Amino acid sequence: MLQVPAAYSSQECSRCGHTHPGNRDAQRFACQRCGLEAHADTNAARIIAGRGIGMVRDQKVVVKARKRVAYRRRATKAGLESPDVPVEGGVSRDEAKADIAQCPRKQEGATTTAPSGV
Ligand SMILES: [Zn+2]
């Protein structure tokens, strides 16, 4: 799970990239440049997905292996790391929360994963 900037995703066309407040009309998205029409949330989801893919491709974020995530979950339960550590990249949780389902665990939190007493 990635956290990507969600700013203007509700106004940006997922087809041509045109970003304008007029593209958004309540729950409908209708691009004023290319004419794309979609549900606003559907369009925004495409924008978010595209940004996430771009971030990975540009290596702005590091995708953790699944195995490691499962391991970290145990560590979190043991109270060895805070689930509320801000992630790097300058995206506030509230911003990200606006458009994508939140991963309950924060990536890029404490790097110490070894539970004590092993
Ligand atoms: Zn468009």
Structure description:
By secondary structure, this protein is mostly helical. It has a domain at 21-97. It has helices at residues 40-57, 66-77, 93-97, and strands spanning 24-25, 28-30, 37-39. It has a three-stranded antiparallel β-sheet. The longest helix is centred in the middle third of the chain and has 18 residues, at 40-57. The two termini are 28 Å apart. 14% of the residues are buried. The mean pLDDT is 73. Zinc ion binds at residues 13, 15-16, 18, 31, 33-34, 36.
Task: Provide tags for this entry.
mainly alpha, 3-stranded antiparallel sheet, 3 helices, 3 strands, elongated
How does the SSE layout of this entry go?
Layout: E1 24-25, E2 28-30, E3 37-39, H1 40-57, H2 66-77, H3 93-97
Antiparallel strand pairs: 1-2, 2-3
Report the bound ligands by name, code or SMILES: zinc ion
| Terminal CA distance | 28 Å
> What's the story with the biggest beta sheet?
3 strands, antiparallel
Helix content: 25-40%
Q: Spell the H/E element sequence.
A: EEEHHH
- Mean pLDDT value: 73
Uncertain stretches: none
Strand order of the largest sheet: 1-2-3
Class per helix and strand makeup: mainly alpha
Write down the overall geometry: elongated
Beta-strand fraction estimate:
5-15%
Got a strand count?
A: 3
**Rg of Cα set:** 17 Å
Q: Please tally the helical runs, counting DSSP H or I stretches of 4 or more residues.
A: 3
